[in-house]
């Protein structure tokens, strides 16, 4: 069951939820309603978002009634080997035992360390559970949420890529577009996310774009579903070691970085 669509919209303060092994994604507090709600989108911080008029649909018609946006952080939870094997994935590599400090395992610099898991949504402050990112795209090729444990999206993150800065998140089993990335919104006039504008992007499956690159035209799930060509950015994810937080870092055409947050509606 798809309950809501993932989005990143403009304007409010984020809080952090961290997990012991895999960093969390920061989400902001106090979202305002949007209309319509059924598109995952990216936008920027700054002033509260302007009211969206009917002349600015978020996705191709038909649209659905408006809904309240819920503030929520998304946390990565590593899955058990049994679940991974059932999903056709390889098991995690065995941990090496140490007598001096068994919790501090060194990873050779030439060996990539890949973390696989789910993305869970919980409300900032209260910890209310809003389910997981769904493995199923909607009819427009956008990611949403689910409470069905069998329908959770499994993703992979290369910890070596995190050290390099902006990185990709891989959607396990996806084909042909394997990355969890941003796609320029249906009604956006450009790929630039600016305070006070109606430009946005949503989250779907994309091909790989280069870090620090503005949106480029390449394959994505929205194009496949609708036949409409849109630019994408896949390597938009950054990790704050101090706060233990994942955040999207969208790149405008002038190579500026608007502050972005993730939520869902």
Automatic annotation (TrEMBL):
Keywords: Signal. Residues 97-109 have a biased composition (Polar residues). Residues 37-75, 89-109 are annotated as: Disordered. The keyword Signal applies. Residues 1-18 form the signal peptide. This is Uncharacterized protein.
